[in-house]
Amino acid sequence: MSKSPKYTYEFGKNTDGDATMRDLLGGKGANLAEMARIGLPVPPGFTITTEVCRYYYDNDHNYPQELDAQVKKAVKSVEKQLGKKLGDKKNPLLFSVRSGARDSMPGMMDTILNLGLNDETVEALAKFSNNERFAWDCYRRFLQMYGDVVMGIQKTPFEDEEPFEMVIHEFKKEISPETNGEIEDSDICAEDMKELVGRFKKLIKDRTGKNFPTDPWEQLQGSIGAVFSSWMNDRAIVYRHKYNIPAKWGTAVNIQAMVFGNTGDDSGSGVAFTRDPASGEKILYGEFLTDAQGEDVVAGVRTPRPVIELKDVLPKSHAELIDVQEVLETHFRDMQDFEFTIEEGTLYMLQTRNGKRTGLAAVRIAVEMVEEGLIDWQTAVQRVPAEQLDQVLAPIFNSDAEKAAEVLCKGLPAGPGAAAGRICLNAERAVDMAKHGDVLLVRLETSPEDLRGMIAAKGILTARGGVSSHAALVARQMGKICVCGADEVQIDYDKRIVTIGEAKFKEGDHLSINGTTGQVYGGEIETAPSEILQVLIDKSLDAKDSKSYENYAKLMEWCAQATKLGIRTNADSPGQVANAIAFGAQGIGLTRTEHMFFEGKRIDAMREMILAEDLESRKKALKKILPYQRRDFAGIFETLDGLPATIRLLDPPLHEFVPHDQEAQRDLAKKIGCRIADIKRRVDELHEFNPMLGHRGCRLGNVYHEITEMQAQAIFEAAAQVKAKGIDVHPEVMVPLVGFPKELEIQKGIIDRVAAEVMKKKKVEIDYMVGTMIEIPRACLVADEIAEHAEFFSFGTNDLTQTGLGMSRDDAGSFLPFYQDEEIVSANPFAAIDQRGVGQLMEIGVANGQKTRPDIKLGICGEHGGEPSSVKFCHSIGLNYVSCSPFRVPVARLAAAQAALEEEAAAGGGKAKDVKKAKAKKAKAKDTKKSKSKKK
Ligand code: ADP
Ligand code: MG
Ligand code: MG
Fold it and tell me: How far is 69 from 257, CA to CA, in rounded Å?
């Protein structure tokens, strides 16, 4: 018989789990265990595994049979450690029931505190603690949380306030009519608390028709079920999509003995970070409330105080926290975000996790931790989420404009950067308003229901709440520009008016916030590039005057040390190329020549070419285009200064270049001197039912050889020109949309011939290559034949995704969001490579190409080249480089370095395994020898 599976893991005196077990115990459970192991004061408890969550959903909300007995045993163990008992009439044990997934999903799922209270145990708690008000305060909190989370009493669309809050509000008005109910919770005395408890029970009965369950075991059952159910609540689902967390991970449930921060002024609760999560500065950062339970700090009912003030209120606890800061950082070797409670002067740790941080802070912390000797540079590179690196490039306010503006008020700088936009007071409206321009979501406080609006908004401003408020949390995680707790901001939601001091704003008016300093301004302040861009691109700031640039540069230096993948850029103009090189690009992976046709007079020559009736007139028009192209290529080659440039021949269908409305057609007729009827006819001829699959790519050059000829001539003449100036040039001519080897063979023939002619005429040697884009599935399958004519492949993953999935990028908007919601696709395949499908096509293409030409150069030039997971994939299939837009180059460099380091780590692990295997083999060999010799 197999041993029954282990569904519960204890922490406390006996600790079963540790930090490595996040998949099974969730992040919270694993780290509670780890903290217990290293001797930090953690109230004892146990974790029900994520496996049970999966079981729960796979089995129609039932539990594995063994669970009940294991829970009972674990509860007994906690009871024994504390000398208290669940439901005891003398010294009752109370529990918290807490969710906790593998990755923390702050505030997304539910928590229940003070479980175990009923009319009898509350009396016992009052007597035992000698604090009646405290006991009844716990009871009322429990009823409120249990009623909300387990019994589902929540506000209806017709209510403005949570039902329990409404009862409190009314009650406060009754007991303090002179203040119209404007009193603190702490002003409610024990007797009144009892009355409130009665009203809560009545509310529960009225709303559900059921009595609140008094049996602690039944309460525990209900709470466990509610936590598992909360895995599928709306906001958790939205959150998981945003962060690509699969539903099958499930949540764990942590059941932990309560400690109490609400017993009086020598108690309290708080949240702290071992470094400032917005700026990265190494200080103990956070906030607390005295005489409060944890959820008060986050809920925004009372405004918490900065943790530094704990020094005055409870100096001993403050000193202990400083020690904890040190212990946590040296043990976890990362910035920690932790929750604590102080019960009558004794500190307890309730949670720790790697703290979410802004991109700016991520870079600073990684670099400084290396300097402090806490981590090595390889770890630092892996610590900064590549996606977040974009944030350090985000605009700031133009400093002159900001100085000239009047500061209306100041809040907490929770998400660095500058944001200006129209005020919107409601998350739903923000989603709509954001379609027509930048929006600032301005609210008293935000809650998980506001998530969609927050995602849509450019920046967030709140009047209440500190660094652990929901707004600050979201800002850190999403890189939103955010100022929170600006208490001078007053909001009238009904009239849709914001008042800050004397100034009044209507919804739709402009406001500006500086998330780096916390300052709020009226109107729209002009923005400027980030410091890093000022150093690298504008050259208006000296490198040594910018700390954030220095940190960034250090990180990039480390990336360069680790990276195996080359990083190129997609750029069509010398300006873009220069930017990309400043960011560290090593060449061009894609120049789209058609982008050069739209400016000024060129488009006329282009149109003349397209409308030409015969070869003669087409060649005449092409002659006009040639000098433009040549000049463009020369400019790019000069800027590249010896770096390679992949230049793609004309790709889009010709109809994209011709005018479709009558006005413009008449205009063109005049300009090129032909009849409007002829233009109309030609435009009609060019019409295609499905242009994406029509006459485009190399199909153009194969029908009109003269187009390829002209483009090749422009490329090689430009190269000769630039080379004559003593600048090295390496053109790589790329033929698009090849599916049949012959298509490329013909094009290569033309290119090679023109190249030879130009080189002969100009008497120079040009080191060039001819290759192709691999962007339709057939090309992957016959890549071995294509490689006979191609010196390089560049995967055009935009079209490869469209053709591979049979899905048009421009039309996918109507169903793709739905597909993501339903998890039919795990991510948007146009943003991140669909590795299973399109990725497999790429692998086939690589393998086939290398069969014919082992040293074939391999790259990617689709939009995916700047997306971290895709960059890592490209590394793993052995591409030589990725190419992305200039401003994504830093992100791609970081992702590429991470890919190399991950691979190294995996290979290291692999090696160790190999050694083990080899040893085992040897041992086995010995054994056989022995037995052989025995036989002898
Ligand atoms: P979340 O994941 O939303 O942060 P938690 O499970 O951390 O939810 O619980 C929220 C708060 O409840 C904690 O910050 C803490 O202050 C309080 N809390 C949780 N467990 C306990 C406990 N055992 N004793 C006292 N307070 C607790
Ligand atoms: Mg928490
Ligand atoms: Mg294409």
Answer: 19
Do residues 423 and 505 touch, judged by C-beta distance below 8 A?
yes
* Helical spans, DSSP H, in 64-155: 67-82, 119-129, 132-145
Asked if residue 740 has pLDDT above 70, the reply is: yes
Question: For 491-537, how does the pLDDT look when each residue is reduced to its tens digit (9 = 90+)?
Answer: 999 999 999 999 999 999 999 999 989 999 999 999 888 999 999 99
Q: What is the DSSP letter of 734?
A: E
CA–CA gap between residue 261 and residue 551 (Å, rounded): 40
Pocket of ligand 1 (CB under 6 A): 43, 96, 98, 106-107, 111, 113, 256-259, 269, 293-295, 339, 341, 350-351
Measured between alpha carbons, how far apart are the two ends of the chain, in Å? Answer: 42
Q: Which of 144, 143, 163, 152 is nearest to 233 (CA)?
A: 152
Residue 710 Cα to ligand 2 midpoint, Å, equals 65
Q: Answer for the pair 104, 81: CB distance below 8 angstroms, yes or no.
A: no
pLDDT band at 895 (very low <50, low <70, confident <90, very high): very high
Ligand nearest to the CA of 696: 3
| CA pair distance 55, 908, nearest whole angstrom | 35
Atom of ligand 1 nearest to the CA of 351: 7
Q: Tell the residue nearest (CA) to atom 15 of ligand 1.
A: 294
pLDDT tens per residue across span 743-780: 999 999 999 999 999 999 999 999 999 999 999 999 99
Q: What three-state secondary structure class fits 546?
A: coil
Q: Strand locations in 291-331, DSSP E?
A: 305-306
* pLDDT over 70 at 920, yes or no: no
pLDDT above 60 for 931:
no
Which residues place a Cβ less than 5 A from the ion ligand 2?
351
pLDDT in tens, 82-132: 999 999 999 999 999 999 999 878 777 788 999 999 999 999 999 999 999
CB neighbourhood size of 741 (10 A)? 19
**Does residue 933 have a pLDDT over 50?**
no
Residues 171-177: what's their mean pLDDT?
A: 93
Say how many Å lie between the CA of residue 692 and the centre of ligand 3.
9
Residue 543 CB contacts under 8 Å (≥ 6 apart), including other chains: 535, 549, 550, 553
Q: What residues are labeled active site?
A: 470, 861
Q: Average pLDDT in the 184-202 region?
A: 93
Strand arrangement, sheet containing 95-101: 8-11, 45-48, 251-257, 95-101, 111-115
The DSSP line for 326-374 is HHHHHHH-S-EEEEEEEETTEEEEEEEEEPP--HHHHHHHHHHHHHTTS
Mutation pick for ligand 1 pocket among 141, 342, 351 (CB with most ligand atoms within 8 Å): 351
Name residue 338's beta-bridge partners. Answer: 272, 352
The answer to whether residue 451 scores a pLDDT higher than 50 is yes
Question: Which of 48, 96, 134, when mutated, tests ligand 1's pocket best, judged by the most ligand atoms within 8 Å of its CB?
Answer: 96
CA distance 451 to 887: 27
Residue type, 689: F
- Residue 728 is encoded by which pair of tokens? 């090295």
Which CA distances in Å does 346 have to 44, 265, 296, 432, 610?
15, 13, 19, 49, 82
Distance 319 CA to ligand 2 centre (A): 22
What is the spatial distance between Cα 131 and Cα 598, in angstroms, rounded to a whole number?
Answer: 79
Q: Give the residue whose CA is nearest to atom 12 of ligand 1.
A: 294
What is the atom index within ligand 1 of the atom nearest the CA of 254? 6
Per the CB < 8 A criterion, the answer to whether 513 and 459 are in contact is yes
Q: Share the mean pLDDT of the chain.
A: 92
pLDDT in tens, 868-879: 999 999 999 999
Residue nearest to atom 8 of ligand 1 (CA): 111
**Residue 559 CA to ligand 2 centre (angstroms):** 34
